[in-house]
Structure formats: C-alpha cells, structure tokens
Specification:
This protein is of the alpha+beta class. The chain has helices at residues 7-16, 35-41, 45-48, 53-56, 62-73, 117-163, 169-190, 205-217, 241-258, 326-336, and strands spanning 21-24, 30-33, 77-86, 89-101, 109-115, 201-203, 225-229, 237-239, 266-273, 278-279, 288-289, 292-298, 340-346, 349-356.
C-alpha cells in the first residue's frame, strides 16, 4: 500500500522543529529555511533565499565542505562541535551539524544545526561545582589547622609594630596585613562548605534588582548609567532574598570594576520568561524547568576568551589582586537555587545570564521543549 505524503504537513513539521534547518541546492543556493533558522541567522526566508550558503556561512567553515561531500556521495554525514560563524551575527557559535541528501537525483542537501552553547555551559558549570566541592573539602580540613598558627603570627606582628625601629614598622605591618588577607581568603573558601538548606519563598525578582541597583548606585557603581528592560508579567522566583541580592550585587560589582576605563559606562538589567530550558539534576527524577531569565549586561572591554570557559571555576580571575572566588560563589548560590548561570562576552558587551525556576510550577506549559539535559 502506497502512503501519500502531504507536502503541507511535511512543511509544518519542519517549521515546528526548534532546530535551524536549511535546504540548499547543488550549487549552494538556499531554497528553504524554517522559522528556527530565520531566528538563528536573524533574517527571513525571502532574504536568505537570495544568498548562497557560502555567502551566509563564514569563509573556511567545515559546513561548506560538508555539504559538498554529502551532495557528491549522496549519503548523510555529521560534523560535531563546529564553529558556526556568519555575516548575520557577530559571535561564533558551537554546534553539531547534520547534513543529509534530500534525494538521489537533484543534489539538494538538508542541514540541521543543533547549537551546543547552553548544554556545554551547563556541563561546564557542573564541573565547576565539582571543583568547588573539592575546594570545600580541602578548606574544611585545613582551615582549623591554618588559622591557629596564623593567629599567633598576627599577634607577634602586632607586638613587633610596637617594639621595632620606625624604619621596620612597615615590614611588621605587612606581616599583619598579609596574615589578615589569608584568614579572609580561608573564610571565603569556607562559605562553599555551607550545605544548610536554604530558607526560600516566592520573591519578585524585580524588587531584588531594584534593591541591588539602589545599593550599587550609592556604592560600587557611582557614576555608571543603569537601564532596565523588565517583563512586568514575570512570575515570582522561589528563592532566598538575601542570597539573590548577593548574586546580583556581586555581578554588578564585577561589571563596575570592568567599566573603570570605559567612556559612558552602562549596566543593563533585563528579565524575560523563557519556557524552553529544562535540565536534569542528580537525585531528581523529573527535569527541572528554568523559565525565569535575568541578564546583567555591561559595555566594558569583555572577558578574555581564554578565561571565559573557566570563569566560574574557583581561583580563576582577571583582577590583579582578585581571589577568584566571587563568581565561583555566585555559581554556587545559583546552583543552590536550582538554576544555572552563563556568560557571553565580547569587547563592548558582556552578558551574565541567570536561569531560575518559578515559585509556582503551574506557570510552566506542559509542552515545554527540552534544550539541555
């Protein structure tokens, strides 16, 4: 029995897929893109159809040779973790690219692009949390043994300040100050070992952000312009108010320090409802939905590319005198709230994005798509 295929139904299926799909002819001309591809490249089908694949994809991309090989061999092929660059957007994106011939006669090739950015960042963050736990174990084991002798060293330095010749007082003061700095570092590392359950309640995230803005404008961010782009219908987050303030105040403090040499420095707060992100968490059978998106953006010089993948690891810092624990602690608190954080940065724009669960799961649609596992 021969089954008839409804072309309209086939097109509707392709349009419903969340992954970008491109169909190109043997000479590279684009003949079809779905809605996800239009969003991915920031252009409509009518615009993209006037281009060839080599005009859309950055020169030298393995995607071009992948399409040529598939068209010649008439067999599907896959390239994993390809850097997708385009004239339509500024950043390179990491993606898995699946290519398949549409038929054995006309040479058309269909491309499906599965962006890896969010999944990779979540995986990386889980590794960072493992590193933080290792730091925690080491700190818990050594903190007591280290603090006792440091207390004695500090006391001896104070006595020396009172008895040494004036020209040697700076050296004694240096010992005391460096001892205090080490103790402070140990205290900060010990915070990672606090495994007490959070006291959480439904919280309006905009109230938290307004409080952070007020604190920052009267403290670490004097002279910096703030702007907001809020979704007023955003449901409450299920969190701890004080710790949420700590998260965003730390991010604003980092942004303020990065903006010290920037003309017209600006920090932007934005919120949105994104019902497409779900993750699997160890010990929980059901995937957790993270529809609340909060972004802290600045127009500073950006994070060095070699540091960006490890930004939330303990002891990783771009500051001369930084401890590298601030963002690791932010990631820990976000994780304690059941959320994730990632950073996207280039010169002139750095965005920290936090995804959090809502207080009432009824806000989440049951047909929600899984983007991260």
């Amino acid at each position: 029995m021969k089954v008839k295929v409804d072309p309209q139904a086939s097109t509707a299926v392709l349009q419903a897929l969340p992954q970008p799909i491109i169909v190109c002819s043997e000479d590279g001309s684009i003949t079809f893109v779905n809605y996800a591809a239009e969003a991915f490249f920031g252009a409509s089908l009518s615009v993209l159809a006037r281009q060839k694949l080599e005009d859309l994809i950055a020169f030298g991309s393995p995607i071009i040779s992948l399409v040529e090989t598939v068209a010649q061999r008439r067999a599907p092929m896959t390239e994993y973790r390809v850097r997708v660059g385009s004239s339509r957007f500024g950043d390179e994106r990491i993606a898995d690219v699946f290519a398949s011939p549409l038929s054995e006669s006309d040479g058309r090739v269909a491309l499906l692009i599965q962006e890896r950015t969010m999944a990779d960042k979540i995986d990386r963050q889980m590794v960072s949390r493992g590193a933080a736990r290792s730091v925690t174990g080491l700190a818990s084991m050594l903190a007591h043994e280290i603090k006792n002798p440091l207390s004695g060293i500090r006391g001896a330095a104070q006595l020396l300040e009172q008895s040494v010749p004036p020209e040697e007082i700076p050296l004694a003061r240096l010992i005391r100050e460096e001892t205090d700095r080490i103790v402070d570092l140990i205290d900060r590392v010990e915070v990672f070992g606090d495994e007490r359950p959070l006291e959480r309640e439904p919280i309006n995230i905009h109230v938290v952000l307004d409080r952070v803005k007020l604190l920052a404008k009267n403290g670490v961010a004097r002279g910096i312009t703030f702007s907001e782009e809020y979704d007023p219908s955003l449901p409450p987050v299920y969190g701890n108010r004080d710790q949420l303030i700590q998260i965003f105040l730390n991010l604003v403090k980092n942004a303020s320090e990065a903006l010290e040499r920037t003309q017209k420095p600006e920090i932007k707060f934005s919120t949105a409802f994104r019902p497409g992100i779900r993750i699997s968490v160890t010990g929980v059978s059901e995937r957790i939905s993270l529809p609340l998106e909060i972004i802290i953006e600045d127009n500073g010089p950006g994070v060095p590319p070699d540091i960006l993948p490890f930004l939330f690891d303990p002891f990783v810092t771009t500051k001369t005198n930084g401890s590298g624990l601030g963002l690791a602690l932010v990631a820990k608190i976000v994780g304690d709230h059941g959320g994730v954080i990632d950073c996207d940065s280039r010169p002139g724009r750095t965005r920290f994005r936090i995804l959090l669960p809502v207080a009432n799961p009824a806000y989440i649609a049951p047909s929600e798509e899984v983007m991260a596992k």
